[in-house]
Amino acid sequence: MSVRVIVLALLLFSFTLNGQESGQALQWPPVSAETKPWTRWWWPGSIFTEKDMTAALEKYKKAGLGGMELTVLYGVRGQEEKFVNFLSPAWLDNFSYILKECGRLDLGLDLANASSWPFGGPWVTNEDAAKYVTYKTYELTAGESLEEKIEFIQEPFIRWSGTFRTDIKNITDPVYKNSNLQELSIDQIRFEKTVPLHELIAYSTGGKTLNLTGNVDRSGKLNWVAPEGRWTLYAVFQGWHGKMVERAGPGGEGYVIDHFSGNAIKNYLNRFDEAFRGRDLSNLRGYFNDSYEVDDARGQSCWTPGIFTEFMEKRGYDLREQLPALFQKDNPEKNARILSDYRQTISDLVLEKFTRGWTSWANQQGKVTRNQSHGSPANILDLYAASDIPETEGTDIFRTKFATSAANVSGKKLASAEASTWLGEHFSSTLYDVKQNVDQYFVGGVNQIVYHGTCFSPESEPWPGFQFYAAVEFSPANSFWPDFQILNSYVTRVQSFMQNARPDNDILLYFPIFDRYADYNGNLLEHFDAISPRFKGSHFKNAAETMNREGYAFDYISDAQISGIFVDGSQLYTGSVPYQTLILPNCRYIPVGTFNKIVNLADKGSTIIFYGEMPGDVAGWKDLEDNREMLVFLKEQLNFIPFGKDSISEAKFGKGRILMGENLGALLRTAGVRREKMTETGISFSRRKVYDGNYYFILNSSDKPFSGWISLASKSRSAAIFDPMTGSAGIAKAKFSSGTTDVYLRLNPGQSLIIQTCIKRLYGSPVRYYDPSGEPSDLKGKWEISFTEGGPVLPKNQEVTELKSWTQFNDDDFRNFSGTAEYRIRFARPPGKADAWQLNLGKVCESARIFLNGNEISKLIEPGYQTVIEKSMLLPDNSLVIKVTNLSANRVAWLDRNNVHWKKFYNTNFPSRLPQNRKNGLFDASAWAPRESGLIGPVTITPVNKLKR
To answer: Are the C-beta atoms of 868 and 836 separated by less than 8 Å?
Structure first.
């Protein structure tokens, strides 16, 4: 990288304020186990010894992790005698030991409420297992009887997770009675059998409806003669969905629960109550749900036995009278409305029965729930809000914001993320790759990172030990482990700010879920995750993308959450969090109660934005005409008048106003909403509020360096810059006006900073920037290279005068090696006068620690690999040591080339991320060429001078 690229040096300076103007000294927020990153901690087969467990936990602590989420996983072949069944007395004894050790080490711990995911296990009976609905129709006319048996035979089906295969006839029904479930590794199974008839309803062409369920005998014979007219009979059958717990460990295999049934979740959690009775769980923070993920299978789980009763209570009419519309056989409008009501009812059940039931159970123990709601057939905003810690995953910021929005709107302190899942191919992700992934979560509002993940492995296990298949391997076996602490310190510093401030977003964007509820997609249910493809071209999707691009800070909001908003002055409040406006994106359907609430908010003084047109119609079927009349009445109260030159209309209503138009930018400007203009330069941000100012997480998301002024939409008197990668901080060069703070800064591509703005005076040393005052010169001489840690063997020491990848040295030991090498050189103090010198390492594969004259001066994982050396640090003769660590890729390729058997796991053994790395169905690196490794350079040193303020 050119020496003309920005160099930023920040020094932390603290002192007493005696005799000075009132203010505060610059300081980092306090650090706790919760501000540190956590990791998903897989426990294969629940294999356990106290010695191994303590050794692992101490390594996690030393690496800078703050806690783990324990998830029991499938076992390891050849170690079956060491397996411990999930929730057995022996397992609970081991779990108690872990809790005790976590308390000793100040490590947090969450427990997945299943052996992997979703909730399920061997104690889940057919009655409580996930179900589906299917139907048959029969036609009769007056005087006819049905000769055909009323019957539905479920077709046999099995989907495997592992490599084992057998005929389904060899498997016992119910599946949890089989003793070899680890070997079977079943993802989903449906046995061939007759499924129960739930209801038989007859519909006449004249509009009559008859319930004939009681007329069907045990053999399936219908004892009924059709009266006058033509009749269509709908037979509704309740089938067993057959979804199994994915990647379950010993004692955790079994059916997934019916998430729509209160009895199912109650019976499921009773097993934990029985297991934990009398146990000390004081060091357990809470429980975890690893997403819904029931319907990543054949067919949907779309039914529960009590659905008709629940539907009647929640929607106010009998669904049994509307089966043709439910199954899309009536007129299109009625089909859409009945379907919408059905989907809304299922959403209500997931919220009330499962999410709130589970959270209430945990809270009664003094524990929290961490919940991945995505993938549910429900309004995930409400599910996230009903959880104590909403958790997201994936890389799409608009997906991330569903979890963080719910946390913000409902007043949750934490919003977490399952980070770095399937980030790249196995053993090929760098720490910088992880940082880039983590930074996107921070921009999306996440403030607790949970890596995916760390697999427990006994110390005696040959390298690379136990592994999980879909992860960046954050385990001590990974060659980057010695430098993992660099990344963890970075994450900790960012989270120490973001966990100790409240949200500061200005806009609430209505999530028009009823448009999706009413839109038939070929299935009875739709599942919600991000902004689904079915929102393509919608005002909702466009609003989110436009605001993110243009620098407007926003959160999504649901109908239920809107009902809780109140107005103070012109501000909208969801609890204690204020917002400036609410945007209703052009939608077809809306509950009349939601629209009435929105109009009421305007009446009390708020500014509401209709982006596009007003909603076209009310949602649902019940009281349709009355609700339509109410919607028309409310809309007629709004007298829109053209406003300004941007084709905006305004309706003044009560103490507030409603703006309407197609130009979202003009609407937001007219509403006076703040905008962060830094996004125009490729800088992304997340903003949070403290009592005396703001915290900004900012990230250079572009591929170009930035040098200049950015304007923050934050009124302040002082500003500071914190570098979470280095731990340094300083007072910013800044300009202040009535409503903004302009800050001068420099950012390399991918670099991130924390900016604090404060209405008080901040005291400390200023941020120092340096510019080149001369040409770079190569650091020449003899480099001594020694290999200190790694394998499969430590290569011989080397001496070179020209740096290159160590894989180019003439020995296979170098090409196969993954680990750390030390590069040593001596150099004289550079001639000439300068305030400091910039040391640039050139190309590094992949992380580096720099020691000058015996003192560690820099830890580098980001491209650029440069640091500033103050002139006071240089001696006439200097010793420079650079410790460089590469990835595990070369070593694992050596294993596969030599047919070393390390992929030995039950269930999903070890699949590849990319098809070109697959052999015999498993990940295989034998064809990999050696990856460049080590200090490649050129290493240069450049005189630099301070930029004058």
So the answer is: yes
